[in-house]
């Protein structure tokens, strides 16, 4: 299922901290980053990216770095897990949607089964995800997350290769 499109940039956003004090969430995000990179995609977490194109990201605040990466990526995967500390991720997605609604086509929310989105985000409650709208896909476990993210990246790579938006 791999379409080699090394210039397909996949920005992975999620909680680096877990509510239970474990390293589950950063581990899951890192696993996803490695999995997509192994398929030939330019996948990354903000903490692992120092430059994008000719832009040096090292002097930027975390918020500004996230905005620049999201704007300059082809696909932004927002991973919401049941154990992740979500307030920062909700704020990032809310800011991107409200400031740059034209970019919503490149955002995909991956939502762990059993987790409901806050009303700030929930499209059905008039939340910020109704601007766009943003694709939402539920996953069961890490394996499901990898499979879904792989399929989404494949679809975006194919659309990019053909000169279309997914």
Please provide a brief summary of the model.
The chain has helices spanning 24-38, 62-71, 87-99, 142-161; strands at residues 9-14, 42-44, 51-52, 55-56, 75-80, 107-112, 135-139. The chain starts with 8 loop residues before the first strand and ends in a 5-residue tail after the last helix.
Radius of gyration using CA atoms only = 15 Å
According to DSSP, the number of beta strands is: 7
Task: Give a short account of the largest sheet.
Answer: 5 strands, parallel
Specify the number of helices.
4
State the helical fraction: 25-40%
**Strand order within the widest sheet?**
2-1-5-6-7
- CATH hierarchy, class: Alpha Beta
In total, the number of domains comes to 1
Which residues sit in consecutive blocks of at least 5 with pLDDT less than 50?
Answer: none
CATH topology: Rossmann fold
Instruction: Give the termini distance in whole angstroms.
Output: 17 Å
Look at the helices and sheets and give the structural class.
alpha/beta
Q: CATH architecture, please? A: 3-Layer(aba) Sandwich
Order of helices and strands: EHEEEHEHEEH
| Average pLDDT taken over every residue | 89
Shape assignment: globular
Q: Beta-sheet strand percentage?
A: 15-25%
Essential attributes:
166 residues, alpha/beta, Rossmann fold, two-stranded antiparallel ribbon, 4 helices, globular
How is this fold's topology laid out?
Layout: E1 9-14, H1 24-38, E2 42-44, E3 51-52, E4 55-56, H2 62-71, E5 75-80, H3 87-99, E6 107-112, E7 135-139, H4 142-161
Parallel strand pairs: 1-2, 1-5, 5-6, 6-7
Antiparallel strand pairs: 3-4
Helix pairs in contact: 1-4
